[in-house]
Amino acid sequence: MDPFKQMSDWKKNMDHFFGDKFWTEFEGTIKPTIPPINMYKSDNELTCIVNMPGLDDMHKIDIYVDYATLELKGSIDMENAGGTVVQEEILQGVFDRTISLPFPVRSDKIKATYKSGLMYIQLHRLISDTSRKHRVNVHVLEGE
């Protein structure tokens, strides 16, 4: 019997009783999101470190950046050592995760590298000419 199936049924019943999407804020606690990430920011840069064990084919992951959003799609598949699972804490499977970034980033300056089970994604703040301060001229209207 699949424990996540039972949890999903229970969650639907609670949503029905308490209101739509009651458990949404608890979802990460009940079933943690994969892949887990750490995000670090400086004035003009973001570094996202994504935990992705066993990734040997870079075509199994898609990374999309759109303005102030990072999207990760793919699959984490670790080789089974054989036998019955006694303890399983490293989450695996198909994922589709969207992360809000603290500021808009440039689409032309993105670097992603993978080393020792970690994906490093470096992003740079979008500084637009249109975001500069402009003086607003005030026009006086003659009395009506």
TrEMBL record:
Q: Which domain of life is it from?
A: Bacteria
PROSITE patterns per record: SHSP (PS01031)
Q: InterPro entries from the entry?
A: A-crystallin/Hsp20_dom (IPR002068), HSP20-like_chaperone (IPR008978)
CDD domains the UniProt entry points to? ACD_sHsps-like
Pfam families assigned: HSP20
User: Where would one find the signal peptide in this protein?
Assistant: none
**Where does the SHSP domain start and stop, copy by copy?**
28-141
Recorded family membership: Belongs to the small heat shock protein (HSP20) family.
Write the protein's name: Hsp20/alpha crystallin family protein
Which species is this UniProt entry from?
Virgibacillus tibetensis
Q: What is the lineage of its organism?
A: Bacteria, Bacillati, Bacillota, Bacilli, Bacillales
